[in-house]
Amino acid sequence: DEVPVHIFVDSVxxxxxxxxxxxxxxxxxxxxxWAWDTTDQxxxxxxxxILDPNDxxxxxxxxxxxxxxxxxxxxxxxxxxxxxEANATWVTAETNCCTxxxxxxxxAYRDLSNLLTVVDTAFAxxxxxxxxxxxxxxxxxxxxxxxxxxxxxxxxxxVSYSDRHYVSSGLHEVIAHEAVHLIDRQFxxxxxxxxxxxxxxxxxxxxxxxxxxxxxxxxxVELGRYxxxxxxxxxxxxxQHEIGYLEAAGFVNYLVKTYGWxxxxxxxxxxxxxxxxxxxxAMNVNLQTYFGITLAExxxxxxxxxxxxxxxxxxxxxxxxxxxxxxxxxxxxxxYDPTAYFLTAWLPYPQELTEAGNPADLTRHPETDINIALxxxxxxxxxxxREADYNRANVLLDSVDRVLDNNGVFIDPLAVQYLSIVxxxxxxxxxxxxVRVDGNHASIWxxxxxxxxxxxxxxxxNGREWILSE
Length: 470
Known about the structure:
It contains 16 helices and 15 strands. Strand 3 and strand 4 form a beta hairpin.
């Protein structure tokens, strides 16, 4: 937090401060939001970032020459923007629970009337299961790009909603999950991360989809991916995302089933990081206070219960494929959509963004042919997974992994087909949003001319070429 940062544009200091912000990976970050007004600055600029310019820090920074990073930034002429983006503006609508914000000419704007019902339904589920009425209307921002796993919440909620939503199609579960993070602050403002994420998954009925949390937790143990609770509680976010969230939800589910919601809610409200030197010890202290059992005893009892459940091979296969899907998806993010990767993503406060930023901050994202092809493949894998077609899902994931293994070179036959479909659509002015390939036939849902209007296309494979059907 004490490392000074100075930012220069064309040798003129633009901003300064410290590495005073932490991302979810726990890394120190210097965050300067909307510091550079590029109005009337069209052209190429040199941006310099200098850490500790006066070499104050001696221990651990023996080589001051590596404290400078320099990048070239190009500010383009706003006249080059397509009309839909140049005229983009925030649009709001009211529901029973919320004020919903979308950007004009996006998928969320197009589907707004239906989304208002989805938002109300998800909030109602969260409120009912928590037995807590919202004490105010909440702000929900539906944005036209993937961020993290699909959403985040602080004092308001941001949820991804796009036609090429390559993370997951579980919109109801994501909104209900984030709604819990808003509503539970009313009675548990100091709740710890492990319990907060576990309760959010439990309340929404699953992680991205409806799930039997008992069977899914048992599958986690059978796959050998279970983590000891103290380890998970003390260092939650760096753990593989689905494992951490599932395990937390499974334990919450066990406590609620064993001791009842009222007793669990009182426990949930009381556990804070101030209770002990570590979060796991805070859990241990409060488990004894509320349930007369230590964390070690509770974990042993829960694992014994899971071991008593009848085997469910489908649950094991589904979880195994799900873990692989999200590992591959995040590998794609780190390589080709890095600002979406949850551990290092910038997650702005949406109210500040609408006042100080512009809609592009939450809508722009990489849209090269490589991005589009890999994203529609990931989306197709998610669809296959939800249809319990695990073989198809894994074949698609194999293909995506091969592209990533080869630094973006499409040599895998299936990946080549998807890339070809994307490129053929592009030559006709379409941007593919969803693609389903069945043998020599492909169905494509695409947008055109920077609009949010979805058009269904058909293509047929003729030799090695995909031909757009009239």
